[in-house]
Amino acid sequence: MKRNIIITGGAGFIGSHVVRLFVNKYPDYKIINLDKLTYAGNLANLKDIENKPNYKFVRMDICDFDGVYKLMQDEQIDGIIHLAAESHVDRSIKDPFTFAQTNVMGTLSLLQAAKLYWQSIDPDFCLPTSVFRFYHISTDEVYGALEMTHPEGIEPPFTTKASSGKHHLAYGEKFFTEDLKYQPHSPYSAAKASSDHFVRAFHDTYGLPTVVTNCSNNYGPYQFPEKLIPLFINNIRHRKPLPVYGKGENVRDWLYVEDHARAIDLIFHEGKIAETYNIGGFNEWKNIDIIKVVINTVDRLLGRPEGADLDLITYVTDRAGHDMRYAIDSSKLQRELGWEPSLQFEEGIERTVRWYLDNQEWMDNVTSGDYLKYYEDMYSHR
Length: 382
Ligand code: NAD
Ligand code: DAU
Prior knowledge:
Blueprint: E1 3-8, H1 13-25, E2 29-35, E3 55-59, H2 65-75, E4 79-82, H3 89-94, H4 96-121, E5 133-139, E6 158-161, E7 167-170, H5 187-206, E8 210-215, E9 217-219, H6 228-237, E10 242-245, E11 251-256, H7 257-270, E12 276-279, E13 284-286, H8 287-301, E14 313-316, H9 331-337, H10 345-358, H11 360-368, H12 370-379
Parallel strand pairs: 1-2, 1-4, 2-3, 4-5, 5-8, 8-12, 9-11, 10-14
Antiparallel strand pairs: 6-7, 11-13
Helix pairs in contact: 1-7, 2-4, 4-5, 6-8, 8-10
Nicotinamide-adenine-dinucleotide binds next to helix 1, helix 4, strand 5 and strand 9.
């Protein structure tokens, strides 16, 4: 089957993995990567597929309503996978307006363009045979923070049984489920929460065929080194301090990025319209513990004595409004569509550290900002 799909934010971390998966897996699809190329967008993330015949890059802002609507018409699209966003919590604390502009207004603009375009190709509104989908990628941070509670007498982490039936380590008894009320705390998560509400409103009001997913922390290649794991790998390599916020006790649920991309593929094709699915790794870690794993892995791969760089750990002032614990219950996705993470964390982190150490040129370009100058030359005449 031929399909024409816009993927927004395809030059970013997760977006580039989704674009790569779709371009390689579906040669009959045309994949249009719509990205503004902010500081977080990097076309070097897609070097291996940039010349494939079923791939096209368009530099555009999701807030550009006319441009986006025309692109939908020109390309006769039948699906949108929306990842473009401002994604870093610390930046949102410094500059909340940009987050409202892109994540809220940008998503609304994209929804309105999609609705008008979809109504023009499907005047009967959502024919049962229609494959048209607006798939919005969101975050677990919209649910707020979970407590580090534990069963009587047992110190966390303790082993618990997920509703999927599998045992795993957890730092609390509660998990984020799809029916939980939204309680975002950071400007980033507030903006993402707002965009999720608009997506659902466009389904409920206009019948737009939408799907929303909320995922936990991703890690893997091509992540911008402002986020914990790539920042720390690079700092360890260069023996720079590792700024641990607060006591390093906050808990995150980590998922290898390619597993997220596989989930997105499955949900885009088989997810039920108007549904929400949580995506997570059942893989909770305290920051300080994950940092020690990263230090030991980098040291081992660089041939340094194990733990040689533990003294780089530097406790700094905590992030404002720092959410204590995130833990996703993704058993609905497992039950209904058969998805589960494919990679054990030990293997994922080894692969990730190896990738950053092997791709120092990518890291140097990103940290020096050279990749941005390249775009200015490339796109200054348009
Ligand atoms: P990222 O910051 O690495 O990439 C964002 C991409 O969006 C960049 O390529 C950027 O150029 C583009 N972009 C930003 N503003 C734009 C605009 N106005 N118009 C067009 N393009 C624009 O982000 P990421 O970590 O890959 O996250 C992608 C999506 O997944 C986001 O919506 C984020 O909220 C969500 N998410 C991320 C994680 C995670 O752990 N990284 C987890 C769950 C959900
Ligand atoms: O949960 C999903 C979210 O995960 C996504 O929606 C966000 O886009 C993504 O950025 C990520 O948010 P976090 O704030 O959890 O990720 P970050 O890598 O910034 O931080 C992970 C944890 O590490 C967090 O508790 C803060 C802490 N931290 C982070 C940095 C950058 C530090 O202690 N020191 C640091 O320098």
